[in-house]
Amino acid sequence: MIIITGQTATGKSKLAYEMAKKHHGELINFDSRQVYKHLDIITGKTIFPDIKTHLLDIVDPKEQFSSFDFVSLARPLITKLVKKGITPILVGGTYLYLKHLLYGIDIQIPADWELREKLNKKTVSELQKILQKENLLLFEKLNHSDRNNPHRLIRKIELIKFTGPVGSQNTFPESRYFPGKFRFIGLRFKDKENLKKAIEKRVEQRIKDGAFQEVKHLIKQGYSLNDPGLNTIGYKQIMNYYAGKMSKEKAIEEWINKEAQYGKRQYTFMKKDKNIKWTLVD
């Protein structure tokens, strides 16, 4: 199995295609927006006529699609391809999908009833202090609601006790599902300036390809920002433009900025996974 991930706009699809040709492979998409039907131009959906791509265009934008859904589809698919002598080549930038596929989904981690019994006696303030001590970075990422929800705080503490500290070697030993059987490639930009320039160029091209027309058509079909598939970068800004909430120039500017921020967050999350072998992109 070959896995290709990394920052947005680094050329993951192109590399995946080359790998598929070289290694008698088929592609498995793990981009959380490319799983949706009708979202083509802004998501940069690429369909190769001579290489089969799985888990692409499988969900209506009005439907929820979680990492659990992805894993339930991807795991048997990978097994099936391997049995046929076909190399599964996973490609995408939604690391959460990948993390859950390789290392397990949180809900599969068993409840520690003894620990829960002890933690249930603690106040919210005490639970916050325990989580801060165990993993300050994780605590700081929680929103106000999660920080003050005792059940969610207890579950976070429980998960940390099970997996070890986030980013430690214990968090990513080898995949518990595919031990030692995959090649893990990560693509990232040398610096933030290159990331921003690549995104600006790509957004400009997608506008030329009909990004605004694509969103207009989706609106006519009855889709809105309340639909899970549309609540994403690019679609969100253009829909707000059509709703009269921002100018076209502002929509494009925000689209670029949000994409750049997303690219930075992708690497922040992915670099904790010591199994990824990184390749720098200009």
Keyword list:
single chain, 282 residues, alpha/beta, 12 helices, 49% helix, 10% strand
Description:
The chain has helices at about 10-20, 65-85, 95-105, 115-120, 125-135, 135-140, 145, 150-165, 190-210, 210-220, 235-240, 250-270; strands spanning about 1-5, 25-30, 55, 85-90, 185-190, 275-280. With about 280 residues, it is an alpha/beta fold. Helices cover about 50% and strands about 10% of the residues. Helix 5 (about 125-135) runs parallel beside helix 8 (about 150-165). The protein has a six-stranded parallel beta sheet with strand order 3-2-4-1-5-6, with helices on both faces. It starts with a strand and ends with a strand.
Can you give me a brief rundown of this structure?
The protein has 282 residues and is of the alpha/beta class. Helix content is 49%, strand content 10%.
How would the blueprint of this fold be written?
Layout: E1 2-6, H1 12-22, E2 25-29, E3 53-54, H2 67-83, E4 87-91, H3 95-103, H4 113-119, H5 124-134, H6 136-141, H7 144-147, H8 150-163, E5 183-189, H9 192-208, H10 211-220, H11 235-242, H12 248-270, E6 277-281
Parallel strand pairs: 1-4, 1-5, 2-3, 2-4, 5-6
Helix pairs in contact: 2-3, 5-8, 9-12, 10-11, 11-12
